[in-house]
Design brief:
The protein is mainly α. It has one domain: Growth Hormone, Chain: A (Up-down Bundle), CATH 1.20.1250.20. The protein has helices at about 1-45, 50-75, 80-100, 105-120, 125-135, 135-165, 170-200, 205-210. Helix 1 (about 1-45) packs antiparallel against helix 7 (about 170-200), helix 2 runs parallel beside helix 4 (about 105-120) and helix 3 (about 80-100) packs antiparallel against helix 5 (about 125-135). The radius of gyration is 19 Å and the shape is elongated.
Length: about 210
């Protein structure tokens, strides 16, 4: 019975690691889209270089602010609620990109990118905390390397996807935002379910394998 239980917990933690990998991939996919689509968007919305710079700065400023604040929020709410808050925030502001119209494109993108930066800043604090909670010390470097590898995967997928979808116009690219939101919410629900199932019963196991 004890052996089967340990195997079950190990299975859960690697499922959680897979969710962290996919969430980080989408995180970098979303942030890379605007850079690749910049020539198309500048032409479509008649942006100047200064306009585009303001949009990019809004994301970086929000990301810096978010990194300072989201870690504290996640510590207070816990990994499960904190990560869901982060995913929910960047999902909502990611969808707002697709709703922006030319008349409000500059401020619309500034607001959307700012909100995206705040939401996405919670990804790494949440992922690192999840690894610390679910992996023993001897496996944490590997687990951290796995979900960090997703940054390259997400950036590459974003570049490739943008190049293909730009041939079909802005509306086609906007659909990828909605596709990603569905994936994120499915991932979030699955992650919460797995953590909830093992939250109380796994404390003794965590102590035995050196997580605590």
């Amino acid at each position: 019975m004890k052996k089967n239980y340990v195997k079950k917990i190990k299975g859960y933690r690697y499922r959680i690691l897979a969710m962290l990998f996919f969430a980080t991939s989408i995180n970098y996919f979303d942030r890379s889209l605007i850079g690749v689509m910049a020539p198309t968007l500048e032409k479509l919305f008649h942006w100047t270089n200064e306009d585009y710079a303001m949009i990019m700065v809004s994301f970086k400023l929000a990301y810096a602010i978010g990194l300072l604040g989201m870690g504290n929020i996640i510590d207070k709410l816990g990994t499960k609620k904190g990560y869901m808050l982060s995913i929910g925030t960047w999902s909502i502001f990611g969808m707002l990109h697709a709703a922006i119209r030319p008349a409000f494109s500059l401020w619309g993108f500034i607001i959307a990118r700012f909100g995206l930066g705040i939401g996405e800043s919670g990804n790494f604090p949440s992922a690192i905390k999840a690894v610390a909670e679910w992996f023993p010390k001897k496996e944490r470097a590997l687990a951290t390397g796995v979900f960090n590898a997703a940054t390259s995967v997400g950036s590459h997928y974003g570049t490739d996807n943008c190049c293909r979808h730009s041939l079909f116009g802005w509306q086609k690219l906007a659909n990828t935002f909605f596709d990603n939101r569905r994936i994120e919410w499915t991932m979030g629900a699955y992650l919460v379910e797995n953590i909830q199932k093992t939250r109380g019963a796994s404390q003794g196991y965590k102590r035995r394998v050196g997580i605590y």
